[in-house]
Amino acid sequence: MNARQDRLLTELLSQPTAPFREEHVAAVAQRVLKQAGIPFFRDPVGNVVIGCASRADYRRLVHDKNGEPLRLFIAHMDHPGFHGTRWLSDTRLRIKWHGGSPVRHLAGSRVWLATAEGYWTEGRLGRVRLLKSGHAIDTAEVRITGARNGARLKADTLYGGFGFRAPAWRAGKKIYTKAADDLVGVFAILSTALDLHKKSRGKKTLPFLGLLTRAEEVGFVGAIGHFELGWLSGAPRPVIAVSLETSRTLPGALVGQGPVVRLGDRRTVFHSGYLKVLTDVALKALPGKHQRRVMHGGTCEATAAIAYGLPAIGLSVPLGNYHNEGFEGGPGCRAPRGPAPEFVHRDDIEGLLKLCRELMRQGLHWDEPWQDQRRLMHRRLREYRRFL
């Protein structure tokens, strides 16, 4: 990554975000796109669509009879967090959690609070109640401990998440942050859009769409809202959903060992033919520097795309301390499985950027992904036919 990319990644990781409260991440994305002259717009549910200036442009791109498949890169702008619900006193706020979370060592945990204007103050968790399933926080109280940026605000304008020594910092090639999932994916889509625009100089229509979604952490709500618009239905050209995620580490998907060619998630496997293309691209572009497995630690927006009839593939950056739960520990972790900063590796992000660029090359064998393998099989049959 160059200095400009480093600055953009740090800026994105530093933004406050939670399900349905993605405005600061969206604002950074829109500013970067506008400065570069890359077309974009917001769809009716608030997702940021990159590569088109309007719904009409979107429909024209989707219905272009170009045989080159349209790559729809998807990443989400939210991260698990809470919304304020009501004030219990001048310094005690009742909250409702949205998305996954650690479930141990929560009392006294540090949190940040923000509004549509930016960071507001800090606090500490208390009186935590878990969901009946026990897999995440349901409700809690936040005791305000920091200096407020202004007067007390209406409870439902506040939101927040776990806080650490800084929104983002580096230790060697590791990047620690309050929220890497999925702001790293957002960064990859923006970087890919900037790279494509620079190379084409905006003079030709590219088979690229970026979709920065809202509220993925509560069940792909932004992606579902986009698919239900029906804008992709009846497309005469192939449309391939490419999910970009920051996914929990697993055996065979370790931090620092390269980006992961994601064969599937907890719910389903992905399109076998298009995965063959992605695998071939990774073998050529990152030989020995990528990983490949079913990432069953969670589900992703590729599942939502498949449910709405789109073929999907996926790429992931391995994530330490998934959803701020101290699986791997490290600096800032209160206790094993307690609140902890997420972390990713710079080399994995650089590998992800390279695979995104390579996937946009024209002439990949999307229509005949198994052609070379079939020729090999045919030669094998010819060689051994006399034994049949």
From TrEMBL:
Catalytic residues, per the record, are 216 (proton acceptor)
InterPro entries named among the record's database cross-references? Peptidase_M42 (IPR008007), Peptidase_M42_aminopept (IPR051464)
Question: How is its cofactor bound, per UniProt?
Answer: Binds 2 divalent metal cations per subunit.
Q: Which residues bind Zn(2+) 2?
A: 181, 217, 323
Q: Which UniProt keyword terms apply here?
A: Hydrolase, Metal-binding
The signal peptide here is none
Cofactor names from the entry are: a divalent metal cation
Pfam families in alphabetical order: Peptidase_M42
Q: Which family does it belong to?
A: Belongs to the peptidase M42 family.
Q: What protein is this chain from?
A: Peptidase M42
Organism, as annotated: Sulfuricaulis limicola
